[in-house]
């Protein structure tokens, strides 16, 4: 794959920013009462996967999603409807610290199980020996962060992000690299560029699978293509970049353990 530098498309005000502007325009609305009323805090609401849920200060949205089943080749709708609800964001560093003695046994058990999964991954990679540096808290944190970035990514979300934020820039970059002009290029040349960009899209979308990884050369090319795009302005873009960076670190740890 080719290393590219692309320019990010101009950004538009986010839904969150627009909501904050609306709230700021009416100072008489107290944050707690107004927000609870505006977002129906504590009340389950119908949820569509296309529905954006803005960040609300002091609260967080919880999605309750269900899959339809199948019986005799026919789709059986779930008994529960997809819903969301805003709840107080009560879990923070202060509350965790307050209950740390009670939480500690659960934390140790959880981290131990995650370390087991890390060791299993090394075993699947045909490692014959586990070095001290391949396990322990530092390696475990890298493993957790890589899994966390992947767990929140879906193939559809990545594809939507790519079409909205990456395709135009990548196509322009490849056109320029090959000395082509959209106004004068023939259809075959344009289709060739589209095919190349589609291959990038497919590779990014495959990162929705937490177990997916690419050879180092391909991973670096995928990261390079993101350098001209401000991934921090997109939750999905940022997670894609994190997934790529962390996968390189995990692969390095695996190599060391061989």
Description of the molecule:
This protein has helices at residues 15-24, 31-39, 93-98, 100-124, 137-151, 155-165, 167-177, 187-206, 216-226, 235-257, and strands at residues 45-46, 59-64, 69-71, 74-76, 83-88. The protein has 258 residues and is mainly alpha-helical. It has a three-stranded antiparallel sheet with strand order 1-5-2, with no helix packed on it. Strand 3 and strand 4 (74-76) form a beta hairpin. Helix 5 packs antiparallel against helix 10 (235-257) and helix 6 packs across helix 8 (187-206). The longest helix has 25 residues, at 100-124. Mean pLDDT is 78; it is low at 7-30.
Draw up the topology in text.
Layout: H1 15-24, H2 31-39, E1 45-46, E2 59-64, E3 69-71, E4 74-76, E5 83-88, H3 93-98, H4 100-124, H5 137-151, H6 155-165, H7 167-177, H8 187-206, H9 216-226, H10 235-257
Antiparallel strand pairs: 1-5, 2-5, 3-4
Helix pairs in contact: 5-10, 6-8, 7-8, 9-10
Helix content: 40-55%
Largest sheet: 3 strands, antiparallel
Low-confidence stretches: 7-30
Query: Could you give the order of strands across the largest sheet?
Result: 1-5-2
Strands, count:
5
DSSP summary: helix tally = 10
Q: If you average the pLDDT, what whole number results?
A: 78
Please identify the structural class as seen in this structure: mainly alpha
Order of helices and strands: HHEEEEEHHHHHHHH
Q: Calculate the terminal CA-CA distance, rounded to whole Å.
A: 27 Å
The domain count comes to: 2
Rg, nearest Å: 23 Å
């Amino acid at each position: 794959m080719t290393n590219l530098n692309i320019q990010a498309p101009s950004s538009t005000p986010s839904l969150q920013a627009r909501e904050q502007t609306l709230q700021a325009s009416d100072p008489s609305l107290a944050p707690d009462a107004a927000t609870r009323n505006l977002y129906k805090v504590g009340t389950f609401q119908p949820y569509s996967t296309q529905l954006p849920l803005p960040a609300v200060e002091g609260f967080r949205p919880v999605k309750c999603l269900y899959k339809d089943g199948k019986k005799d080749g026919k789709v059986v709708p779930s008994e529960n409807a997809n819903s969301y609800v805003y709840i107080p964001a009560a879990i923070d560093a202060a509350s965790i610290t307050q209950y740390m003695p009670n939480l500690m046994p659960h934390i140790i058990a959880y981290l131990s199980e995650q370390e087991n999964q890390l060791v299993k991954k090394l075993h699947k990679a045909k490692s014959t020996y586990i070095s001290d540096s391949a396990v322990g808290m530092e390696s475990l944190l890298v493993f957790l962060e890589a899994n966390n970035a992947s767990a929140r990514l879906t193939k559809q979300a990545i594809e939507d992000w790519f079409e909205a934020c990456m395709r135009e820039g990548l196509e322009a970059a490849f056109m320029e690299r090959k000395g082509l002009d959209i106004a004068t290029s023939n259809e075959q040349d344009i289709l060739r560029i589209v095919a190349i960009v589609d291959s990038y899209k497919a590779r990014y979308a495959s990162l929705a699978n937490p177990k997916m990884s690419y050879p180092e050369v391909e991973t670096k090319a995928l990261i390079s293509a993101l350098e001209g795009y401000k991934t921090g302005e997109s939750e999905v873009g940022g997670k894609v970049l994190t997934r790529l960076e962390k996968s390189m670190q995990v692969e390095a740890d695996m190599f060391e353990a061989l």
